[in-house]
Design brief:
15 helices, mainly alpha, single chain, 75% helix
Length: 351
């Protein structure tokens, strides 16, 4: 009995980790928004954040994975370079640029579409099998369509502002009217970041099979991603004073983003991806959406629009329809070892 309980407790470790990951992301939305409203450049933030993450993770990766770390070949380094491009420099720069034009609630809601976009990309690349005669295949297609419908609602329909029930407990300086008018621009940037993020999820699952060292991979992505982001920032940010950090919210958001998010959280996600697969990781995204909406509306007094509420519910319904189909596929894959039932995420069944 004791052995059974120990096995059950160990099996729930990834679930606990992913809940903590979503709590970490929830806090990130508000810290970075406050920093950007304070005047920090999102591109400078991304560069510093991943540089901090790489420096912090390096000693752990070097000593703890000295024997487990595979030899880094040129081809593998180029794969990490592309992985960093998708998961750090391109995606995160676009992602935080979109936060500057929208709101934490909106961005957190849009992240729920990553599972649907991952499915579409996997089908386009031939990694995902879709059988419309099977309830699982039909659920995946319907779930994807519903999720994308939710995206359109959030992007194109803002709707009236929901009335505040009381004064906010904490005040974060708001965006200017000119920025709020760029809602569509922010929406398009968010969708683009979700597309590249989906490509990253597909690629990282494959890379982990050839480079099964999560700490080292996290460190490499931090260094390479920071270098890529620095080049991009130099091109688009011509004000040299933007690189300076003082003892204010800019510094603390950079430290939090580097140590907790780009370092610890990325490592935990890689670990959970290797243990449970990318589908499992994306299942927890709605938790962050709910937490952000609660904090934004009830604690910070953030404006909450009807279009975002409707779109979020639609996206979450579609997400879980898709995930139900994927989970059913994975169970069939593991029981029968039938590769025709496997999707892009079911790498353990394909190998």
């Amino acid at each position: 009995m004791t052995k059974f309980m120990e096995q059950r407790s160990v099996s729930y470790v990834p679930h606990l980790f992913m809940v903590l990951v979503q709590l970490g992301y929830t806090l990130l939305y508000f810290i970075t928004e406050a920093s950007f409203n304070h005047g920090m450049s999102p591109h400078v933030y991304v560069t510093y954040r991943h540089l901090v993450a790489a420096v912090v993770m390096f000693p752990f990766a070097y000593f703890l994975e000295r024997k487990a770390r595979p030899k880094l070949t040129f081809c593998l380094f180029m794969e990490i370079f592309v992985l960093s491009l998708l998961g750090v420099s391109v995606t995160v720069n676009i992602y935080f640029a979109s936060l500057k034009y929208t709101s934490p609630t909106f961005v957190a809601s849009m992240i729920n579409t990553i599972a649907s976009l991952t499915f579409i990309i996997a089908v386009a690349l031939g990694f995902e099998v879709v059988d419309l005669r099977n309830p699982r295949g039909l659920a995946k297609v319907i779930g994807t369509v519903i999720s994308l419908a939710g995206v359109l609602i959030m992007s194109l329909y803002k709707g009236p502002v929901m009335r505040s029930l009381w004064h906010p407990l904490i005040h974060i300086p708001g965006k200017s009217a000119a920025i709020n008018e760029s809602w569509l621009k922010g929406s398009l940037l968010t969708v683009l970041s979700c597309v590249t993020w989906s490509m990253w999820f597909i690629m990282q699952a494959a890379t982990l099979k050839r480079y099964p060292a999560q700490l080292s991979l996290t460190t490499w992505m931090g260094f390479v991603g920071a270098a890529q982001s620095a080049v991009f920032t130099v091109i688009v940010e011509h004000n040299s004073s933007a690189w300076s950090l003082g003892p204010n919210i800019d510094l603390w958001s950079t430290i939090y983003g580097g140590v907790v998010v780009a370092g610890l959280i990325i490592y935990v996600q890689l670990w959970c991806t290797e243990k449970k697969g990318p589908v499992f990781v994306t299942m927890f995204n709605p938790l962050s959406t709910i937490l952000v909406a609660i904090l934004a509306y009830f604690v910070l007094g953030e404006k909450l629009y009807l279009g975002s509420i409707i779109g979020t519910f639609v996206v979450i319904i579609g997400l879980y329809l898709l995930l139900w189909g994927k989970e059913s596929d994975q169970k069939v894959c593991m029981k029968t070892k039938d590769k025709s039932q496997c999707g892009a995420e079911d790498l353990e069944c394909r190998i």
